[in-house]
Design a protein that fits this description.
CATH class: Alpha Beta
Number of helices: 8
Radius of gyration: 20 Å
Number of strands: 9
CATH architecture: 3-Layer(aba) Sandwich
Strand order of the largest sheet: 2-7-1-8-9
CATH superfamily: P-loop containing nucleotide triphosphate hydrolases
Shape: globular
Length: about 210
């Protein structure tokens, strides 16, 4: 067999990370993206105005409320929600184009968005929930960030219980006591999912060529 015959194509996957605020999901996402060139962050659409330094197409797709509504009515979002007075959603086309090209897409969304993704693209979805090692540790992390008032920290702690109750809807659970260990576990999940038979699109042809050459 030639070197060309050794190549097996792969369909990309959608890797969802969910967690209560403060469990380390953002840090894990950033470190995974830095260490793996084959996965990219999903870019959401929003009706809120850009903040200083944000760029259309890189940070968000900034849309008018009218244009967002048109896309929603055309079923062009994989998931969408209204947060306070603004709308957010994941445009389907760039995600599906990436999957077709064999690239993986990372999602940093909550359990509600994950449920919507599950309805639209169940076969492409890998769901990972990040848990803190304890309630005390979660509260410490939220306070250490020094970004929120005591009232906001208390609100996030109260919300965490509801978020954690949805852990059974996920394929994998990572308890993030040590970020290096959690990242290693996350990368192991990604590697195993990439090697699943159903995602190796050229495998049947490869095996046929292999058997013909024996």
């Amino acid at each position: 067999m030639s070197s060309d015959d050794l190549h097996v194509g792969r369909r990309g996957l959608m890797l969802v990370l969910s967690s209560p605020s403060g469990a380390g999901k953002t840090t894990l996402s950033r470190r995974l993206l830095e260490s793996d060139s084959m996965i990219t962050m999903s870019v959401s659409a929003t009706t809120r105005p850009p903040r200083p330094g944000e760029q259309h197409g890189r940070d968000y797709y900034f849309l008018s409320t009218e244009d967002f509504g048109i896309m929603r009515n055309r079923d062009e979002f994989l998931e969408h929600a209204k947060v306070f007075s603004n709308y957010y959603g994941t445009p389907a086309k760039p995600v599906l184009d990436a999957l077709d090209a064999g690239r993986d897409v990372l999602f940093d969304i909550d359990w509600q968005g994950t449920q919507q993704l599950d309805e639209h693209a169940k076969e492409d979805l890998v769901k990972v929930f990040i848990l803190p090692p304890s309630a005390q540790d979660l509260e410490r992390r939220l306070k250490t960030r020094a970004q929120d008032s005591a009232a906001i920290v208390a609100e996030r702690m109260a919300k965490a219980s509801e978020e954690i109750s949805h852990y059974q809807e996920y394929d994998y659970i990572i308890i993030n006591e040590n970020v290096d260990q959690a990242l290693s576990e996350l990368r192991s999940i990604l590697m195993a999912e990439r090697l699943k038979r159903k995602r190796q699109t050229g495998l049947s042809d490869f095996v046929k060529r292999l058997r013909d050459a024996l």
